[in-house]
Amino acid sequence: MNAKSPMITTDQLLMSYSLGKFPMAKSRNSKKIYWIEPRHRGIIPLKGFHISRSLSRRMRKGGYRIFLNSSFDAVVEGCADRDDTWINDEIKHLYQKLHFEGHAHSFEIWHDGTLSGGVYGVTLGAAFFGESMFSRKTDASKLTLAHLVDHLSRCEFALFDTQFLTDHLASLGAIKISQKTYRKYLERAIFQTADIYSSSVETDPRSVLQRITQMS
Questions:
Q1: Distance between CA atoms of 144 and 66, rounded to whole angstroms?
Q2: Which whole number is the average pLDDT over 79-94?
Q3: What is the pTM of this model?
Q4: How far is residue 154's CA from residue 40's CA, in Å, rounded to a whole number?
Q5: Are 25 and 87 in contact (CB under 8 A)?
Q6: What residues does 132 pair with on adjacent strands?
Q7: pLDDT reading at 47 higher than 70
Q8: Which of 143, 147, 117 is nearest to 132 (CA)?
Q9: Per-residue pLDDT for 5 more than 60?
Q10: Which residues of 75-111 are buried (b: 16+ CB within 10 A; e: fewer)?
Q11: For residues 37 and 22, what is the distance between their CA atoms, to the nearest angstrom?
Q12: Checking DSSP bridges between strand 65-68 and strand 104-111, what pairing results, if any?
């Protein structure tokens, strides 16, 4: 990893994504930003999302609402609201600028009028780079990811990059690939065209469940 001085521009950030790198700080109080390029990368195959029986039951039960870009700043704050975080003030401001420019997006889940979880990330070509997610309610992050995978598929995205592979993501079908393989996927995806607004957000969990089950 290489240290980066403050005042990164959004153009520099998008260029780094196109080269397979992303920024992180050591902590919320750190003044340095580092460009990270893992030797192995986590991705969620858009046709390989795994829905367990318990998650399937939870989706059928409903009782939640999903939105796109309704509370971007709140999602970033939710992701940073933990004891140990790599999201410092510069990263917050940088992604707020990207959101304003139309390159960063949030996917949110609400229960009873309260934001209970969300994911934010960056789009470039037909690639979605998931940056971080948070959950304040049981299964909120799983439900959000299920709807996000469905939405990206319907909007013709080709790559869902999760940066790293965690046990949580692996349980949902995420896999680990080599840096070399990732670069091949990335090169193809960024030269394709996808629009996160080309399809409306699905409000019926049963429809999402049916489509994902058919694709898996």
A1: 7
A2: 94
A3: 0.94
A4: 27
A5: yes
A6: 120
A7: yes
A8: 117
A9: no
A10: bbebbbeeeebbbbebbbebbeebbeeebbbbbbbbe
A11: 7
A12: antiparallel
| Cα 143 to Cα 149: distance, rounded to the nearest angstrom | 10
- Residue 123 CB coordination number (10 Å): 22
CA-CA-CA-CA torsion sign (50, 17, 82, 105): negative
Tokens encoding 63: 């009782």
Q: Name the residue among 81, 29, 196, 205 with its Cα closest to residue 129.
A: 196
How wide is the angle at C-alpha 165 spanned by C-alphas 212 and 189, nearest 5°?
65
Side chain identity at residue 85, one-letter code: T
Q: What is 139-175 written as a DSSP string?
A: THHHHHHHHHHHHHHHTT--EEEEES--HHHHTTT-E
CB atoms within 10 A of CB 30: 15
Q: Which residue has the tokens 């592979």?
A: 165
Cβ pair 169, 30 in contact under 8 A = no
> Beta strands 159-163 and 127-135: pairing type?
parallel
User: Which contiguous run of DSSP H or E holds residue 81?
Assistant: none
- Residue 79 has which token pair? 């992701």
**214 pLDDT tier (thresholds 50, 70, 90):** confident
Bridge partners (DSSP) of residue 3 are 34
Overall residue count recorded for the chain in this entry: 216
Phi, psi of 192 (to 5 degrees): -95, 170
Q: Which two tokens stand for residue 18?
A: 């196109």
Alpha helices in the chain (DSSP H): 10-18, 53-61, 72-80, 89-100, 140-154, 167-170, 179-190, 205-215
